[in-house]
Design brief:
The radius of gyration is 20 Å and the shape is globular. The protein contains eleven helices and 17 strands. Strand 11 and strand 12 form a beta hairpin. It has 360 residues and is α/β, with parallel strands linked by helices. The strands form three sheets. The protein has a nine-stranded mixed β-sheet with strand order 16-15-14-13-7-12-11-8-17, with helices on one face. The chain has a six-stranded parallel β-sheet with strand order 3-2-1-4-5-6, with helices on both faces. The chain has a two-stranded antiparallel ribbon with strand order 9-10.
């Protein structure tokens, strides 16, 4: 296929990972970038052999840009994605799709009305380890799955990130909890209710340069998410607990016959282990040699291939909007003493990748 041109909006920390990985996918080609800081956009463009645009409007006027990759801060996702769709561009956005359910639904409907594709991260469920786990679970290796334990102990990001305040503003569930929520719902289906509780364990923090700030959101959240089939997901998410904690980004799936441990929801070369009930975990070989780390642009490339093939793409806006519904329900529940909040939205579960499906 002829590669589709991608234009990156927001050339911050994660943009480098997208740019490096984009070069490995024949379905896409990095052609342009823009940032609120023009100097940063120019430096990024020079490092990655693409054009730097002075504004979002200039990038949207670039005919070589087929897909806008929205890597802006959480608060800007909705506005940037909406402007790109209105300009007639396909969009792949970093997570979350929006900060409000109403805005997420508006974006889904706008893309549909314009005949455009809208995709959203996290697409880490497309990783080799994650696809291996999905194949085993869907193939019945665990029997009926009834409980999932997910850990998101992401630590005190102010110790390494130069601008941590926006992450604490949206909170750990919105910033990182979306990874296991997306992965688990992609494997086991939609959520139908949420109960959640949150605590501010260490509200006063200090940036790297010594500036004090208050976090503005719970830095420890425990959520119980009930899925359509009755599976209960216990999700622990923290911006306080981190390494040397043994469990940082792991997920365990527990079924009647066996359990499966996925070492990381993010790393494509994570360990996958299966153990029959009452016995020990044993490692399982992955369906193919894995990408080491996270292939950030894999979701964009898969969407580009889907456009060429005329089929639905896997990192869908409908699922991303459903995850926003879970986040909003969890926030409502936390604000009301852990009350059960029902969720009514749905989405089509993404199929396994061809290389994972044939391996099964």
């Amino acid at each position: 296929m002829t590669p589709l041109g991608i234009g990156i909006v927001g050339t911050g920390n994660i943009a480098g990972g997208y740019a490096r990985d984009a070069h490995t996918h024949p379905e896409i080609r990095l052609v342009a970038a823009t940032d609120l800081d023009p100097a940063r956009a120019v430096a990024f463009a020079e490092a990655n052999d693409c054009r730097a645009h002075a504004s979002l409007d200039d990038l949207l006027a670039d005919d070589a840009v087929d897909i806008v990759v929205n890597l802006t801060v959480h608060h800007a996702h909705y506005d940037v994605t909406k402007r790109a769709l209105e300009a007639g561009r396909h969009v792949y956005s970093e997570k979350p799709l929006a900060l409000r359910s109403s805005e997420a639904r508006e974006l889904v409907e706008l893309a549909e009305s314009r005949g455009l594709r809208l995709g959203c991260s996290p697409s880490t469920f497309l990783g080799e380890a994650q696809q291996t786990a999905a194949g085993l679970i869907r193939g019945g290796r665990l029997g009926t799955v009834r409980a999932v334990y997910a850990e998101v102990n992401w630590g005190r990001i102010e110790t390494w990130h130069p601008a941590p305040a926006p992450f604490f503003d949206v909170g750990v569930l919105v910033d990182v909890g979306v990874y296991p929520l997306t992965l688990v719902t992609s494997m086991l289906g939609r959520a139908r209710s949420v109960r959640a509780w949150g605590w501010e364990l260490k509200p006063d923090r200090m940036t790297i340069d010594g500036s004090p700030f208050r976090i503005g959101s719970p830095d420890l959240i425990v959520a119980a998410v009930e899925l359509e089939g009755g599976v209960v997901v216990r999700l622990t998410a923290s911006f306080y607990v981190g390494r040397p904690a043994k469990l940082t980004g792991s997920i365990e799936f527990h079924g009647d016959d066996a359990s499966l441990a996925l070492g990381s929801f993010q790393e494509f070369d994570a360990t996958v282990e299966v153990g029959e009930y009452g016995k020990q975990y044993e490692p399982v070989p992955l369906v193919r040699p894995p990408y080491h780390g996270t292939a950030w642009a894999r979701g964009v490339a898969e969407m580009a291939a889907a456009i060429a093939d005329g089929r639905p793409h896997r990192a869908s806006a409908e699922q991303a909007a459903h995850v926003v519904d879970i986040l909003e329900a969890a926030a409502t529940s936390m604000g009301d003493g852990g009350r059960r909040i029902e969720i009514t939205s749905t989405f089509a579960s993404p199929p396994l990748m061809p290389w994972a499906d044939s391996a099964g």
